[in-house]
Structures
1.
Amino acid sequence: MNPAPNLVLVGPMGAGKTSIGKRVADRFGLVFVDADQAIVERAGATIPEIFEHAGEAGFRERETAVLRELLAGEGQLISTGGGAVLSADNRALLRQRGFVVHLGVSVEGQLKRLARCTNRPLLQRPDREQVLREMAQVRTPLYAEIADLSLDTDHLMPPDATLRLCHLLAIRWQRQETPA
Ligand code: S3P
């Protein structure tokens, strides 16, 4: 089974972390936890409200505090926000307390999936494509740095991505259990 206390999903906005995460958690009997949702509950404010009142820096502080709290637990599938990997402390913690899965998606895929999205403050700008490309440049190496496993979701609907990921996890975890 999962060699780490938690299963963690990282990856850019629109990669399917929440939709795939809920399904994979069900399959493996893990408690699904959305880190963004936990931030909202603890702050008593929406993500756009947090960005408006505390700025991105204030949001990132809350994000780190919530990740620390959640990762102290176990048996969870934790879906993280796309920017969670920006902090070296977060990355160290995610690796320590999680088996990390990187869900990938191209900028073209993000533009399609997020076309109607209004609740991601970093995307509420006219130059959305440019913003996403710059984010990908900075963040893709950081996702890769901490990932135990990666899956590109570009051409997969959530049910198919779930099947694929469950299969890859089962193989990996079985291999880790088998004595050399
Ligand atoms: C962010 C991604 C969002 C959320 C916040 C910032 C980012 O989460 O944490 O809007 O910096 O990429 P999702 O990746 O779940 O959309």
2.
Amino acid sequence: MITKIIQIADHTSPYLEICGAALRDGELVAFPTETVYGLGANGLDEKAVKEIFKVKGRPQDNPLILHISSRKELEPLVENISEEAEKIMDIFWPGPLTILFKKSKLVPDLITAGLDTVAIRMPENLIARNLIRYAEVPIAAPSANKSGRPSPTMALHVYDDLNGQVEYIIDGGKTGIGLESTVLDLTTSRPTILRPGGITFEQLQALLKNLTIDKGILSTDANIVPKSPGQKYKHYAPKGEMFLFVGDRDKVNETIKEEIEKYQKLGKRIGLMVKEEDVHLFKSAIVKSMGSSDEEVGQNLFGILREFDNMGVDVILSQVVDNSGIGFAVINRMMKASGGKIVQV
Ligand code: TXA
Ligand code: MG
């Protein structure tokens, strides 16, 4: 298969109708959302959905998110919609929030990996929404990376992972948030965050007083299994070994300098991820700016990890961000990328 990359200026592009029809007909189409690029397939077509698992190399027990373009598309996919869910959707949809509902019979078991809940999201990105609207079916879409690689935030990342395996890649530029959606379970007695993401804990807690966070995503204890199957896999793993440096800023930078010397003596290629304002402090490694704000770090993280892979970096030394707001999702991804290797200074 020759993958066609379609550069589109905006959501009014006539190509979206063509790609929407291709999706409906069972082809795979990668497309931008406000979080990361998605690998789309007709969510009601088992053959197309199977292809997603195959192309990504995704474990069969990891369920997929169904993407919709308007609220009326939700009803046929779910058993019921609680008042709580209505309230949350009113405020956060369209947007980077995936909500779990009890699934209806219409949803193939392959999508939910046999679970009785289905994850649904209405993206904010208008290219994504128009594409889904033209497809006229719910679109199953995991992140458009090979399983285990960092999620794609640019069409080029999708191309690197999936060239020759998807019909179209819609290039809509760099994604805005750069981290995946928050996954929120509203089917249990307490609303629970199964994956931190674009909508923050604080934003949700303001509306859901008894909001909690799945223990599996906070713990490094392998015996505590996350409720969201995707969270149990080693994700976002760069090829180089990654370490996170936590503590006082000056001490962190001093320690990183010492580590650079150590690894250089061993002949290692070192990649450094630091805040924009600290870039000038380091000369003797491949230094990448994560940006200044936590939002910028979120936008840049996956792309930098991919750049390090392309450069054959052996060791990645990284600063961290505060664990609040979007920082919670950033830290979650950094923990996964590093396999939890923290250096407390
Ligand atoms: O931002 C996003 O959510 C992106 C864009 C493309 O929309 N999609 C995405 O999909 O990140 P994926 O497949 O890479 O991650 C979906 C996560 C996985 O961790 C999966 O285990 C979880 O959602 N999930 C899906 N259905 C679930 C269910 N019924 N119960 C628990 N977790 C579920
Ligand atoms: Mg993913």
